[in-house]
Design brief:
Elements: H1 5-9, E1 16-17, H2 20-23, E2 41-44, H3 48-61, E3 65-68, E4 85-88, E5 95-98, E6 103-106, H4 112-120, E7 124-125, H5 138-144, H6 151-154, E8 161-167, E9 173-177, H7 189-193, E10 202-209, E11 211-212, E12 218-224, H8 227-240, E13 245-250, H9 251-261, E14 271-277, H10 283-297, E15 300-306, H11 309-320, H12 322-327, E16 331-334, H13 344-358, E17 361-367, E18 372-379, H14 384-403, H15 422-425, H16 428-441
Parallel strand pairs: 2-4, 3-4
Antiparallel strand pairs: 1-2, 5-6, 6-10, 7-11, 8-9, 8-10, 12-14, 12-15, 13-14, 13-17, 16-18, 17-18
């Protein structure tokens, strides 16, 4: 047994937890991996220097480190393994906004919602907008290059990261980038760490780009009797327009949300699109009018538009709660597959066919405007046969996305759950290059082992 006394003495009082009961909540993230291990200890760091202390101790004793933010990962990216050190950033929550440079310097434990609120106090906006923005941390967003509801127009996390401070596997603290909008000196290392899922280094600070506050949005909601018509509508809209939101929910999602909200959604609809335009002045209404015509042309059963902010937000909230609403129906295997927009219909219809063939319930919601879907396979974990069918469907959906020229993850990360499919998605050459970078930056393999890499 490794003596943790020396490590504890170098950290703030109470930072290190080794009691099994207190460590329990740090073993799993939202993916709820049943194979989660038992940590040697959990360390709730408060500074970059604390992170350096933990990493150097881990390197000295060849201990794996699992970095954890809010534990909202949906791919098992912060699942503990036996004998690891869980490095929790929950106490690193500082946010400093500089309205002159339109940047925010943020520690990794700060919630996405708190960064948005801090920016809003200066009439600024941080656009990356995961559905879980109220309870996901910036560190996790950076680690997975999170997207969200607004990314169809405003881009994903990496588009707003100007710099990061990173503790490398040997305990060095490296500052990359900074509050400069243009900077091409040296290799683009900042972008290398964004989306690396804690496997190359531990991010202790991010310099985030802010933009002027978003304009009020006009909202359109359309329902369809056929999945194909909804998917064709997405293609037709994105061919000539870029709305600020273009979200999709299938019938399973609609009914799950309606069970929670009783907002009179059409339970019989095969699909629903929630679309917003934040163009200035009368242009928003004009864009929504164009979108209405497209929806009606594609046989929408109902089209409803509003410029009332509260009413529009109610529909957006319906989309935000789709995942937790479906989760109340049973255990879920959640995917994050994406395809080019022209293949969206093939993906959605293909998932529907897989669900019927495997006799499982699959709920599909999507950031449809950029082809990123979130299929949730619902099952009873006590039913071994049903679990087997769900796992088979999970793999078939992953295979389908790859076959259609898509990806096994658009924003949640590979984590542990999707790692087996990485070799089918990346070419052998790309996979080897990934491994070379991992080996160069983490030669002992102590940073998040089993995530992304074998």
């Amino acid at each position: 047994m490794i003596d943790l006394t020396a490590l504890a003495s170098r950290l703030p009082e109470g930072a290190l937890i080794s009691d099994a009961d207190r460590m329990e909540k740090y073993r799993r993230d939202r993916a709820n991996d049943p194979n989660a291990g038992v940590p040697l200890a959990v360390i709730r760091v408060e500074s970059a220097q604390d992170v350096q202390t933990v990493v150097r101790f881990a390197a000295e004793h060849s201990l794996p480190i699992i970095t954890r933010g809010a534990g909202s990962s949906l791919s098992g990216g912060s699942t503990a393994i036996d004998g690891c050190l869980v490095l929790s950033t929950e106490r690193m929550t500082a946010i400093e906004v500089d309205p002159r440079t339109r940047t925010a310097v943020v520690q990794p434990g700060a919630m996405n919602a708190d960064v948005k609120a801090a920016a809003a106090a200066h009439d600024l906006w941080y656009p990356p907008d995961p559905s879980s923005f109220e309870f996901c941390s910036i560190g996790g967003n950076l680690a997975t290059n999170a997207g969200g509801l607004c990314c169809v127009k405003y881009g994903v996390t990496t588009d707003y990261v100007l710099g990061v401070d990173v503790v490398t596997a040997d305990g060095e603290l490296v500052e990359l980038g900074g509050p400069r909008l243009k900077d091409v000196a040296g290799l683009p290392l900042t972008k290398l760490f964004v989306g690396s899922e804690g496997t190359l280094g531990i991010i202790t600070r991010g310099v985030l780009r802010l933009i002027p506050a978003q304009r009020p949005a006009a909202t359109l909601v359309a329902t369809f009797a056929q999945l194909a018509d909804a998917c064709q509508t997405v293609q037709d809209i994105t061919r000539g327009m870029r709305p600020s939101m273009l979200e999709f929910m299938d019938q399973v999602c609609i009914n799950a949300v309606e069970d929670e909200t009783a907002m009179e959604l059409d339970r019989s609809a095969a699909a629903m699109l929630i679309i917003q335009s934040d163009e200035p002045g009368t242009h928003a209404g004009a864009e929504i009018d164009q979108i209405r015509i497209i929806c009606e042309k594609n046989s929408a059963t109902e089209v409803y538009a509003t410029d009332d902010a509260d009413e529009g937000e109610a529909f957006v909230q319906a989309r935000r709660i789709a995942i937790p609403s479906v989760e109340r129906k049973g255990a879920v295997l959640l995917e994050d597959v994406g395809v080019p927009i022209p293949q969206l219909g093939d993906l959605v219809l293909g998932i529907d066919a897989i669900a019927r063939n495997r006799d499982v319930t699959v709920a599909v919601m999507a950031h449809a405007g950029d082809g990123n879907t979130h299929p949730l396979i619902v099952f009873d974990p006590a039913d071994a046969e049903q679990l087997e069918r769900a796992e088979l469907a999970y793999g078939e959906i992953m295979d389908l996305a790859i076959e259609l020229g898509g990806t096994i993850t658009g924003e949640h990360g590979v984590g542990r759950l999707k790692q087996p499919w990485l070799k089918d998605y990346l070419s052998p050459q790309a996979l080897a290059l990934n491994q070379k970078i991992k080996d160069a930056l983490d030669p002992q393999g102590i940073l998040n082992p089993g995530v992304v890499f074998n």
